[in-house]
Amino acid sequence: MATLTVTHTESVTLNGAARGSTNSLSITGVDDVYHRIVTCPANNETRLVDFHSSVADAGAADTGVTGMDVQNVKYIRVTNMDGTNPVTLGLCIDQGEDDTAADATTSVLLSAGESYVMGTPHDGINTGTNANFVTNLVDLEGIEVQPGGNAVQCEIFVASVV
After folding, report:
1. What is the pTM of this model?
2. Pairwise CA distance, residues 107 & 94, whole Å
3. How would you class 116 by CB atoms within 10 Å of its CB: exposed for 0-12, middle for 13-18, buried for 19 or more?
4. Which residue in 100, 6, 8, 88 sits closest to 48, CA to CA?
5. CA 7, CA 19: separation in Å to the nearest integer?
6. CATH fold of 33-161, please?
7. What is the Cα–Cα distance from 67 to 50, expressed in whole angstroms?
8. Angle, vertex CA 15, rays to CA 9 and CA 17, nearest 5
9. Cβ-based burial of 8 (10 A; exposed 0-12, middle 13-18, buried ≥19)
10. What is the 3-state secondary structure (H, E, C) of the chain?
């Protein structure tokens, strides 16, 4: 087992004064990582990863992508590696938490070079369609990327424990 250390640094100088900060997070017990750079074709959805209730269910034949145990994943990062073009990141949500296809999707725009980071996908997201969306968090079922008119590369990094 290993410890994953994640460090975020913001640095800017405004009117001659340095602003920003550095924050670190350590996640212990990491024994599985999924790391890929994926070429995402123009105007098509590309599935990056699936999350399921067990590793046995995680090899989703219908998507052909790597699946991970939703309860064991502790860190996710997706980065748009393109220098010019944005992508739409689709966070596919399993509101029924029944390992079936996504019930809803929340989309996030990632401009060129930007990253999206989240912790556990288990009970870690909701669409807000429910009156108690803050307290009724559900599982993330998968992550997709859709570029606009140009193909882009995206990097995905997922760390989990057993």
Report:
1. 0.87
2. 14
3. middle
4. 88
5. 17
6. Jelly Rolls (2.60.120)
7. 4
8. 45
9. exposed
10. CEEEEEEEEEEEEECCEEEEEEEEEEEEEEEEEEEEEEEECCCCCEEEEEEECCHHHHCCCCCCCCEEECCCEEEEEEEECCCCCCEEEEEEEECCCCCCCCCEEEEEEECCCCEEEECCCCCCECCCCCCCCCCCCEEEEEEEEEECCCCEEEEEEEEEEC
Residue 11: Cβ within 10 Å count? 9
Q: Structure tokens of 112?
A: 């060129």
CA nearest 62: which of 142, 120, 158? 142
pLDDT tens digits, the chain, 162 residues: what are they? 999 999 999 999 999 999 999 999 999 999 999 999 999 999 999 999 999 887 655 444 445 578 899 999 999 999 999 999 999 999 988 766 666 677 778 899 999 999 999 999 988 877 766 555 566 788 889 999 999 899 999 999 999 998
Amino acid type, 16: G
At position 111, the amino acid (one-letter code) is: S
